[in-house]
Design a protein that fits this description.
Radius of gyration: 29 Å
Number of strands: 2
Order of helices and strands: HHHHHHHHHHHHHHHHHHHHHEHEH
Structural class: mainly alpha
Number of helices: 23
């Protein structure tokens, strides 16, 4: 009797699903879907469950590395990708995630090694080649980068971003002609490549080209990316050089409306307003700059000039003294202070200040208010030293979940990427993609470029070191 019951029990249980295996698969699937929908914290909790149950599996470590990457936890992503590789070295995505994470923390040499490992598994993959070329360029291995870009373009002659990336390499080496040729080729392939438009506009403006052509390229880039504030700053520079003061003011004001803490736009709008003798509003802009960055000595110098014109000599002297304390060899600051003493009727102090070498007395004219001149286009960099553009990790494809399956998981806090990510929208270190396939999508843009309007009409600002 007992033997018969035991045989029946074995027969029945042989048709039952393996619930432990089923639940593990479902937990992993739920985690993948949470990752796809950018609920990174929740996805990590699911992956943790799978790892505790089956620590020998490589996939949950890889997926958790992706989630950590999107939360800017690059060290954690590197550690998890390493664990995935130790368990299965034939996962190209794991090599790639570790490579892009290392690139985001500036470890380009190690990133190159990881890309090489991934390319052994996926030869001629264009995104891997692209990211490796960027890493080589960032590590100053220009010959290797040039060779990789050449191979990439040979294999994928219609890949416009390859030309954009090589153009950035040419610019790094000072070859603006070759860079411009590559950018033109990229735009022939893709007329809506906003980064190619921006870079070509900047090159045209910097190399004495037709500013109307530079403006046309920047206009088109802004139409494609209207929320990208650095483009409007660059356009303001070009508009100023075309004597379109109102257009430049409009662009700076637009940036400030969307980003009130943008000191580049505030500072340059102040200079434009000062040039138009709108001293009160110029002073207001400089006060805002100094409220954000109290040690901005360029702003202090210009505020002293405006305060002197308004005959607020005590405040003007305080600003001039602060500039001299920071830069005791800055001749123009002493000229400014002597001029302020003269305005205040402090003849003795004015003569003493002007008695320094290389100064004459009395000043023939008050120091000119610095005004915008030739633009200096400055590349922005991620706080983590991101590469040419931010490489994106593989993106998981969501999987359907049977509604009849109960996933054993305690309620978790659903913190989305928007609240967890600490990166600024203007300089992200990662680009989140939702579309399959689950392979790395190479970053497609060069770094944003900011423009500033240096005050080159006075020796003070051209000689002042960057603070």
């Amino acid at each position: 009797m007992k033997t018969g019951l035991l045989s029946l029990l074995i027969l029945i249980t042989s048709f039952l699903p393996a619930h432990g295996q089923l639940n593990t698969d479902r937990v992993l699937t739920v985690g993948r879907n949470a990752l796809y929908f950018e609920d990174y914290v929740l996805s990590i909790q699911y992956f943790n469950q799978v790892i505790r149950t089956k620590p020998y599996m490589a996939q949950p470590y890889l997926l958790r590395a992706l989630a950590k990457y999107n939360l800017d936890d690059f060290e954690g992503a590197i550690a998890d990708a390493t664990l995935a590789i130790e368990r299965n070295p034939f996962l190209p995505d794991a090599w790639e995630v570790r490579g892009v994470s290392r690139q985001c923390i500036g470890d380009n040499r190690s990133a190159i090694t990881d890309y090489a490992g991934a390319l052994q598994l996926l030869p001629h993959n264009r995104h891997l080649l692209f990211n490796m070329a960027i890493a080589q360029s960032e590590s100053s291995d220009y010959e290797a980068a040039d060779s990789t870009f050449a191979e990439l373009i040979r294999l994928y002659p219609r890949f416009d971003n390859a030309y954009v990336g090589r153009a950035q390499l040419h610019l790094t080496r000072g070859d603006t002609l070759a860079a411009n040729a590559d950018l033109t080729r990229a735009l022939e392939i893709n007329a809506n490549s906003s980064q190619a438009l921006v870079m070509r506009s900047v090159i045209t403006a910097q190399t004495g080209g037709d500013l109307h052509d530079a403006l046309a390229d920047m206009d088109q880039a802004i139409r494609l990316q209207p929320a990208r504030t650095p483009l409007r700053i660059n356009r303001a520079v070009i508009r100023y050089r075309l004597d379109d003061i109102n257009g430049a003011l409009e662009d700076f004001s637009h940036v400030i409306e969307s980003d009130p803490m943008n000191t580049t736009a505030l500072y340059n709008r102040a200079l434009l307003r000062a040039e138009l003798n709108d001293n009160d509003r110029a002073l207001d802009d400089l006060n805002r700059v100094l409220a954000i960055t109290p040690d901005d000595h360029r702003a202090l110098y210009n505020r002293a000039v405006i305060l002197a014109e308004k005959r607020d000599t005590d405040a003007a002297l305080a600003d001039a003294d602060a500039v001299i304390a920071a830069y005791p060899d800055l001749d123009a600051a002493y000229s400014l202070r002597a001029h302020i003493h003269q305005l205040a009727g402090h003849t003795a102090q004015a003569a003493t200040t002007a008695a320094r070498p290389r100064h004459s007395w009395p000043p023939t004219s008050p120091p000119r208010k610095p005004i915008p001149a030739t633009p200096t286009l400055l590349p922005t960099t991620s706080r983590r030293g991101s590469p040419l553009c931010s490489p994106s990790p593989p993106t998981p494809t969501p999987n359907p979940i049977s509604s009849s399956t109960t996933v054993p998981f305690a309620a978790a806090s659903r913190t989305t990427a928007a609240t967890e990510s600490t990166s600024s929208p203007s300089t992200p270190c990662h680009t989140t993609l939702k579309e399959p396939p689950p392979k790395t999508t190479a970053c497609s843009t060069a770094p944003s470029t900011y423009a500033t309007l240096p005050t080159s009409t006075t020796p003070a600002l051209s000689a002042m070191p960057s603070t």
